[in-house]
Write a structure and sequence with these properties.
The structure is a homotetramer of 123-residue chains. Chain A is an alpha+beta fold and 123 residues long. Chain A is built from two helices and six strands; from the N terminus they run E-H-E-E-E-E-E-H. Chains in contact: A-B, A-C, A-D, B-C, B-D, C-D.
């Protein structure tokens, strides 16, 4: 998952606006679904919600940079997952996050289907 | 309708990213509904869509600026409106747009209810 | 610090896109500077950077909601601060974050000036 | 220039937020520079600014869509250009814009260097 930094991603400090690294992680998670012809919105009533993010901003990205997001499944519970997502520019780690996702169905936490776990585990 | 320019609104050029002036105009239109306790989404199947925008970028806004959006109903047809929306910093005009909105109901152009016209005309 | 939720803040899930709560916190921090006639960019070479965010997404906000951001100084070190920022809709807590900010001068961590601490402590 | 529609691009209406089509056009213009190893910020004091946009919103794009932006040089003057930029999903035209760009150097309109015209003409 490669991401180019455009003007819209930067701010008057000359670097990528901090929340955009978190957007890039969401793009990467969604792309794992899209590239299999699926949607992160598994059904209108069934999808993941972000419950917690703990993230470190290590180095800034700049206009024109090409970034890569790496996604790794760290822990799996019945209705939730912990993913580690990291944003790199070449070999340099810029941003690192642990993200807790809860699978909800009809607005309640629900068992994650096996095939959905597989999608996020292969990332 | 006063709008503060935050970091998120600016880009690496040090000024407000160009599409954000158009966002500010949308905020101002929506606020005309919200401040009356209404929603721009009149019903799940009934709302305005933007059909055309013709806009001039005259001067840049900067981090921390307080901007004002002025909205004027220019022309009214059966199922569409033309609004003039301008973004000022104090007396200085920064951005000016003519915006064509079409009222749709069940995905088809539909007669604009009288009370809805009133909302946008008072702006 | 009151914030209205506009269309731009929401996503196809019908609620506020998750990273936008973090944007609202940044707006609130910047506003503490702006309302005193100051800038969060204290000088071109002197400003805070976000080092870490640990946040919980508790309940979703919706189009048209009016949100309030509360900011509290939790801990102060020589060159860094920990802020607690919470987003409420009326009495309901929607989002809560601990945010570590580092004060940099000429790109290096630097002692936070006393008057700057005061700005963030009063919020 | 292919663009995937992510959650961040959509709004509570379930479709891409209108100003994002204009962002996609900017991405496509910048990418013409980046893919040649150049920057749209030709130098700190030399770059294009958007002067006018006249655009039609024809059909909505949806979460997960892959869009393509086509860019064509329509007219060239001494210090300005008119580009036509169109956003397609497969063969379907969703958005069409005429965009006037002015080349500025030290904040004043300036003759566009020949190699810069070539970049935008090949798009």
């Amino acid at each position: 998952m490669k991401i180019r930094v455009y003007y819209e991603d930067t701010d008057a400090g000359g670097v990528v606006y901090h929340t955009n690294y978190i957007k890039y992680c969401e793009r990467a998670r969604s792309e794992l679904f899209f590239e299999r012809g699926l949607s992160p919105q598994v059904s209108p009533t069934e999808f993941f919600v972000v419950k917690n993010i703990n993230c470190d901003f290590l180095k800034p990205a700049l206009l024109g940079d090409i970034l890569e997001v790496k996604t790794e499944l760290i822990k799996r519970k019945n209705s939730s997952l912990i993913l580690k997502q990291e944003v790199f520019r070449d070999e340099t780690l810029l941003f690192s996050a642990l993200i807790v996702l809860v699978y909800v169905k009809d607005l309640r936490p629900s068992r994650i289907p096996e095939n959905i776990v597989t999608i996020l585990d292969k990332g």
